[in-house]
Amino acid sequence: MLTTPPRLRKMASRAAELSVAACQRAVLDAGLSAGQCADAGCFLGVGASGGAFEEFEPFLAASAPDGQFDPEALASRGLQLLNPLYAFQLMNNFALCHAAIACGLQGPNGAYFSRGSGTVHAVRAAAAAVAEGLCPLALAGGADSALHPVTRAELARDGEASEPLGEGAAWLVLGRDGMAEQPLAWLMEAQVVVDARLAEEAERWVARFDPDCVVVAAWSAVASAALRRGLGATLAIETLTRWGNCLAGLPALALCVALDAAVKAGLSRVLVLSAGVDGDLGVCLLHRSRP
Amino acid sequence: MITAVLTGVGTVCAFGSGVGELWRGLAEGRSAVAPVRQFSAANLGVQVAGEATAADIDAEWIRTQLPPDMAITLEAKLQALQLRGALRDRKLGFAVVAAAEAWTMAGLGEADRDLPLILAHGLEHGFPEDFAPLLRNGRVDWRLANTESGSVRMRSPVDAAGRAIRQLFGLRGPLVAPVSACAAGAMAVADAAQMVARGEADLVLCGATDSMLNPLGMGGMARLGAPSPRAEVDACRPFDVRRDGLAMGEGAAVFVVENAERARARGATPLAVVLGAGTSQDAFRATAPLPDGSAAARAIMVALRSARLAPSELGYVNAHGTGTPLNDPAECRALHAALGAHAELVPVSSIKGAIGHLMAAAGAVEIAASLLAFQRDLLPGTAHHQQRDPVCDVDVIGEQPRRARIDVLLSNSFGFGGQNCAVVLGRAP
User: Fold this and answer.
1) Is the ipTM of this complex over 0.90?
2) Per the CB < 8 Å rule, is B417 touching A94?
3) By residue range, what is the domain housing residue B296?
4) Where are the alpha helices (DSSP H) in A105-186?
């Protein structure tokens, strides 16, 4: 259960609340000090705006008094019903900013809208920032909620994502090689393949990396089935049916599953394949031990 | 080491379509902030803005802004976008026009369509008028919402403009959509330059687009208290002792960022060199910038370090300069912290008084504006700045541009939520 301070709740979407909670857990789990956080980068894949609809609905009703939208009514009545900080619930980047504020992350950063691949881009940007010495460590991940009523309606209308819908956030801490005494895993690859033929690409990446396991994180059952067709006999973990579709959060949650598979199940190489609705394929590879 | 250069630029803003209009407006020391024309803003709490010159952004308007051959090629696709309702989001049209100008200026063609597109976007455009028919007894009946697939209803997709450019221009590379609020446009340019410097791409189309000039967008910003409450054309007065808030604006800027060797080999004329960039996070409050400017200073110092430059080598600073009571002093403190004694010497200006605050597109349009320094040896002025606030202790350029030949400039962008980005540009050799 999330315990969000009331003031944060006025300014934070559901995705931002989840992001803050996950970021705090990641910082705690990695044992980061305040000083380390101050130098840390943060890069996040984020979804669409998610302001609390129970606050928005009275605004809408007051702005359409006779069943028709009236800009004058919006100005004179509707806006007065919105909490002044509601705009911050809508700003896409606040899923990152609230987490940065909560954890004191002051390093290089970037928020990327994600249809799946944006989250992988965030992980890639974080890895590059660390590799290029812009920061000694960086947090990267994704946060989103598909349970927002507008998002649900859009997804249903456009048939872009499979049920069950879900919500979630995950942040991972990336550091320079040699920084931690016992790293959980090494991130060997993080890239996006554009307009991918999913089954063929899955087959190609499996042939290239020979993973012990593949974590499949697709937005739709169709895409998931296509990816699994390309995996052959390779062990696969499906995420869509386990947590529901967490949109921008899903690839990052899948990376957590991959870490778990590497650490707890002792698998050497775990591949994460994430497919959004834009046809792009995210590819991340974790190694359990130093390559 | 690979150097990234700008070989194309396109803009749309309150001065009009085309970077030439932007440079002309700034060179003449004009301001384009005026009463909003699209709709009645009488009771919104914000009545003036830097509104793009066209009231209606439709397929016909976009077509008239494009080079003739491109207008013919894209006509059917633009009509299709209009039929889907996608052009109700004004920023989509701005992005297409700016991208076409940059693409044409850089001389790109069929062989370049694999390039990556990094387009920063502002907040989705929400359409309250689409919700009204769904209301039953004050509640939305979602069973009524499941209408035509593919049509744009309730709100535009976040990355609608990027997807449209990709479709219209037949691009096959990846689309990256930074959404880092008011720092997003500068971050898009920084990301593109880094992508070229790393050797991941030789050519990147990048930039930003935004418009919040609609009743919900303007009303929401007014509720936040960010815009000046005065319904005057000098609503935004950066660094002025009388400043009381920002003026909203809209528009887009798109660049072609290219490997310098590649540009040289094909005979392209660079507009500038991207020498460095830096980002940081205030991690302070959602509602205010870090007062001492230390996080913003960090972004500036990282940018200078990545450019391998000393502060004294900076010839001009294009400030974020929103004209809000808190931002301007914080930015001046950041400049002092990052530049030391040179902060009192380097000329500083903000163009937000002239065209408004373009939100996600601000950083990109301001980088385009800064190119005036290299193109015409003119440093843009600060519209409506008349009496410098003593706490803004930097050399603020007044309302008229200042003639100077400089070789290196800095452009600052600071976003809601505390995201900061600084970009250093150099005169092309």
Assistant:
1) yes
2) yes
3) 276-426
4) 117-131, 149-158
